[in-house]
Amino acid sequence: VTTHWNSRDYVKLQRAFYALRQLEALFISESAIYTKSWKGIREEIEDEIEKLAKELTTFLTKHGGNKAFENLSDFALKLIRIGRILDGLPDFKGIVRLKMSQILDKCRDRSWGFAFLFKLGLLLEQGEQIEKEGDDTIGQAIVAEFKHFNEVRTFSWNDETVKKPPDQSIKELKTEKFKAPNKPPTPCNSKHKFLLQQYKLYEDNYQSFFDEYISNETDRTKLILKVQDRARAVQPSSIEAWDESVIDALPFLLAGVFAYFTILISGDSFNRLLSETNSRSDHSKVLMKPHPVQVLTILNILTRSGLPHHLMEVRTGEGKSMILGATSAVLAILGFDVRVTCYSEYLSERDNALFSDCFKDFGVRQFIHYSKITKLREHQIAKRVDIRERTLDLFRGQLEPTHHIQSSSAALIPSSNNVSTGHNQQVIPPSNNSSRKTILLVDEVDVLFGQSYYGQTYNQVAQLQDQAVSALLRRIWMERDSKLNFRGVQQWPEYVALISKYSEWRIIIDTEVKAMCSDVLHYNEPPYVFNEKTSKIGYSSHDSIDYEMVYGYRTAFAYLAESESRGDAILNNVLYLRVLTSQFSYANINPFRILGVSGTLNALSNREKDAILKMGVDIYSYIPSVYGSSKFSFDRSGRGIALEKTLESYFLTLGQLIKEKIDEGRAVVVFFESYERLQKFQSSAYGRQIKNKNVLSSSISTEHKNYVIKRAMHVGQVTLATSIFGRGTDFFCKDQKLEQNGGSFIIQTFLSLEKSEEVQIQGRTARQGKKGGYGMILLIPDLVDSFELEPDSLTNIAHADIYDHLDALRQKKYALHLDTMEENLTLANQRDAVSQKYLNVLAQGKVSEAVQCLHDVYAQIPSHGVDSAVDCHFLIDVSGSMSNRVSGGKSQLRVAKDGINHIISNVLDANRGDTFSLMSFSNAHSDLYHMQPVEDKTSLMNVVNSLRADGGTYLFTAFIKKLKQVLSTIEEGSQQFLFVFTDGAAHDDDLFGQLKALIDQIPETGFKCILAGVGLQLGHYRDQLEALAASGKMELIFFESTDQISDAFDVAAEAIVELTSGYIS
After folding, report:
1. pTM of the shown model
2. At residue 954, does pLDDT exceed 90?
């Protein structure tokens, strides 16, 4: 710390602070190991910040007008000096940012200040004020950080984008229509001439509006009224009425919206700059206005009769926010309810903020909604009936018939007919009738076809607040360290009191109580954050903390844990029974129209396009880039892809490529499929050699995350990231040296199952017209396992053909994945139908039918509420012989893994409270999971899929270890299932006596043990196993052929179902 502070190496100093904070958490109580003396330097840094800020303030006091402009370079260098701390020491970002903002505010308040800041920003953006290496980047970072330089950023964007003539962009526009599944698309009729006419009308109207209303002396509400009057004159009564009169009005309407947006966002800046310099030269570049390509995108979507479903490909980082915002405004002004959906709440809020004031001033704020698709589904249901509140009425015996179900848009009627424009005048908003039709605008096609949505359901839970529930939760919390089991809980007075009050709902209550018993043991998984100001618990979600997120009953128990030190005041409204009310399929959102933009249309497979076609989306368009030709490079036939046989050579090649690119003066971002693989590389000899590296993972704080992302695009910087950051993370390059050296370089260390994920990762470089490169380094054993290949199958492929070969394998594998998604969709639609029936009878107040339907909703859960939880333990042979192939071409281990994954996916049930344990064995044993809840099935299956075959068979040693573990954790009333699977003779059968003694200890009830042997030779070894089974405590099953491995796991699945049924009378 002292060394880096004395040399003012802030980046290394920050790393030292970060490491010391981690040490502090571990050793703060050990004064001999940990000392706080280093914290004195923090006071020195604060003094330094104060000193640098004072120098800037003194400059503004001494200089004014022309003298300030003459000494602009001196002020820029002083600003960069304090900016070095802002850039390199995020620990002090709050105080530095405040000081710099205050200084820039003072500057802007001077009569000459606006023009001064504009020239200062341009100077910093050019990166020519250099006192120390890296100052050019610091200057550019300052421009990117502060709102005082908004005009400079807009100027740069307008300057960098290619001013391609609109007619040229129109010629490059491609549109195609899908008429039937499994059929290639056909090119749509050319609209080039018509689009050009529409664009010219737009351009004329835009310029006319701008010239008329740019002056601060004009009444800009008149512009709003002009647009509203024109919209009212042609407002379609339905989508079908989207005819020529509407289409002819679109250039006028769009021009009005964009002109008002430009004036609202940057008109004051334009006017002030004009007044201070008395020149219009280049000042139009400070205006935030759409690029011609963005305007053409909107016109291409909206100027088709009947407004058909339509998706357009717009590259990442090329202004989708502008397109979605203006399209939303026009549609809302024309009388529609608009839903803009995105996969990220953070990105939705960011995009909404851009046009929020414009929406408000046009009087359509209440008709435009930005959200994730979950909130859209919530809104659709809420418009019909409050399913949660009505379910609680049903539970309490208070359900009454309702004579009115809200129409699809009744909730959208505003409380006032007048909407303030912010200009002290009132304008009348567009039609407020209750018949507005919903149009869905999607931001990225994943909203429609992502794994989190397609084939999945939106599950709504009612919160039954009752003293009896609160008492039971408190009792379970107090008894958490005892041998908690459902049978014991049933004897508690708290449980009896709850059942007595709601006897009709015993099956549902029992299901939920079992979930409580399971969740109390894992209340701090995942880790939660407690907000001291709001007394709320939140969880990490993307790049922020979500205080609305709830993890079953774990959140309630987390509040109980916090209440032990903070008091019961924090428990208000957090202890309740969770009643599942519905499971609505995301695929059944059924808006009147689906429109949108995406960066990955070209990456969609034919199967995915067919699935989207089922939703009615049949037109795709591809618009050219606003930046011209892409500067992205990927040598897919040469050095751009490398295959390595061992983990050692894989890490070696990765380390060499990173060093090569850093030596070229570039920045490198490496994407790993998992955090575990990232950690292995980081701790390897090759990872340790990388000096200037940061790690980007979901476990780090938001503040540190932002710091790592910001540092990533600096010359010489290496960023190791998990795959989740390959989507939506804005690695924006402002380093001119980096651009001169070829831009940033992305390395992907795994083959994505979905091509769209690969496209998104590639999109983290070469953004917004910058240069960038991409390469892949892949581990052959990963490919062999993930794509079920023969170990040597890739060796005979010519290197130039490797990528295409892998891409074909990926498509084949992904097709199977799509089959699963389609199966899930069938189940989701079945659950949706049951939920829809419940919703209808609930809304009508039909009590007896509603009671039955709610039980039917619970019956749709994979296992019913009357089932008993089971603790499933798997002991799996991963010796070398498990790599042998069966008739279908899969390895024996692959078939075994598929069998386990089937059980995890389709047999084990989180709501029931099932747990999962996994131990593998060969020469040694590896305890991968023990008593893990099965809520996150994907994570469990990822661990199963990570198993590799190698070594000999030491069955008895592992069996003894596993059986001891299971016997030591048996709880009263629990159901235990131990499944042992092997394919060869054990090398440690001398331990027979020890194992037999343990098997004799297996309880008579509540425990089932099966050993399945496949392809074993008859003889002494088999005789010993049969002797173990003679006591009746273990069932022994032999399959002579390895082709019967899947049969062995079918037996296991049936045994689990048998164990879980009939537990409650």
Report:
1. 0.71
2. no
